[in-house]
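Handout, section B. The chain below has 463 residues.
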Amino acid sequence: MARFRKDPDPRFWQLNRSIDFDWRLAPYDIDQSQAHARGLMEIGVLSEEELGQIDAGLERVRDRIAAHGFEFDGADEDIHMAVERLLGEEIGPLAGKLHTGRSRNDQVATDVAMVVQAHSLRAIELCGAAMEQLLTLAEAHRDWPMPGYTHLQRAQPVYLGHHLLAYFWMLARDVLRFQFALDSASVMPLGSGALAGVNWEIDRDSVAADLGFEHVTHNSIDGASNRDFVLDYLAAASTCSMHLSRFGSEIVIWSSTEFGFCQLDESFSSGSSIMPQKLNPDSAELLRAKSPRVAANYSTLIGVMHALPLTYGKDMQEDKEPLFDAIDTIELCLDVTEGMLAGIEFDRERMEAASGDEMLAATEVADLLVRGGVPFREAHGIVGDLVRDAVEQGKPLSELTPDDLRRRSEHLDSTYYEVLQRSSWLESKRIAGGTGSVPLAAQLDSARETLAAVKARVVEERS
């Protein structure tokens, strides 16, 4: 740069140079440059012939960067300067006109917004694919009983289909979060300049429409300094990865020999270097482990932006590595989740046997007492006494005698034994959102509608 007489110290150059990671912005930077050039032609800065040369030159730059074995020059500081240099090699001094009416500050903000838009949509698409597998499994296992857990202790029986749909609705909420990030990034910063706007009356709305943005920023200072859309994406990815970690953890537990509820396909499992019998759920374990990494990316950027004075500081260069890492991680994890679900197999007999534990009917007995007029808190205590009696006598609840029952409550009669028949435990949950067959059928209908809406949204955004 003309202001400087000294070359940068090699140590500063290594710290300052961003081409090693922001090269991923290349296709977005080229798309943006082409749209910006069209905007410059509309106000007479470029002729139609010059626009044609710049557009063709940028396409050759795109091909060069995408070619196998391409390497950036050691003097390239960032992707924006690299593209400008390569364009100069293609079309000569005319390349210097392209930077008229923009700054690297609004240029990079626009590139990153385009990245967030593209990958928010990709995340929605991948969430939809995983949701579809969960829905398919839920429909196929809508009447398979299993124990539900609290504190990892058997609590109440549920249908496997109902349990799987819990993850469906988590991902449905993740779709909404990624959609918010997409919408947040659909406001074009280009035209903000370094911070105060530019001296050229480029039609920002036209350029925005050209690039697929819905709006333009209202304030040039905010436009140059805003990274909320990156934080919105990272927040969505953090929550989504947390959901996947919960799913991964349950798969690890369920596939253990002690539980034996399911088994992953071999293509998503690994063996042991020393124990030939092992079939390890490594894919599920890694879903569990990746979540803190994505959350750390969010924490990194919010820390960078914390208390940062307006408008641009080089600190903001640190937005890209956490964003790119989060993109790679969450997209891979979602893709793996879809693949795991497609090949997972459940053991109906193991789950059904575990769900037949009579202790899981304790709440049913308490509700029986409530129907007889006993306040719930009192009923809770009575059933707790019955459970302790059964445990101390080493017998199931159904083997307690009528005398045992009368000793605890005058309200207990033969209907107690009827309630302990396991067929009623699941179907008694008829409330909307419950695990019973009727509300589960309604939930499946809602899930189908939700999935159809997600797919339609992806098609609409891509059109």
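Note. The domain at 105-351 is CATH 1.20.200.10 (Fumarase C; Chain A, domain 2). Compare this with the example in section A.
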